[in-house]
Amino acid sequence: MEENFEKTLVLIKPDGVQRKLIGAIITRFESRGLQLLAIKMIQVSHEMAETHYKEHLGKNFYAGLVQYITAAPVIAMVWAGENAVEAVRQTVGKTNPLEAAPGSIRHDYALLTSRNLIHASDSPATAEREIALWFKPEELCDWSDPHYPWIFGKN
Ligand code: CMP
Q: Rounded to two decimals, what is the model's pTM?
């Protein structure tokens, strides 16, 4: 019944929080039918930022990226649903907001890669690693969404 049910990590970055876009961003995922399993506000430490972005170590934007994500609180969330990793990334849009599809969050609310509002895991394997980094297992709520058959029903 639950084919390809996945969980994925989403961060509303400091610019999204400061610009008071938390509600607008959450509404995009809720309206699409995804299920929120965990949410918290965090002031990210340098150490946490370096662990989260370790694959970007050595890139020319790395220092600025760590500074950006630690500049003010973020909202960390776990969203779930069938093919949630791909669905969330589509709703988020491409890394460069100028290349993001109209209707995506980055297209509709951002203009620069260095202030692209939001992070989403790029694969199921990354999602597993990132969820474990940002949340303790007991912080995820296991609840059954009554809308599930109306969103994921197969004919
Ligand atoms: P995110 O999806 O969080 O993953 C890595 C982040 O690095 C990305 O979003 C951007 O915020 C940032 N990033 C990637 N490429 C660049 C770049 N060329 N210049 C500045 N920031 C970048």
A: 0.97
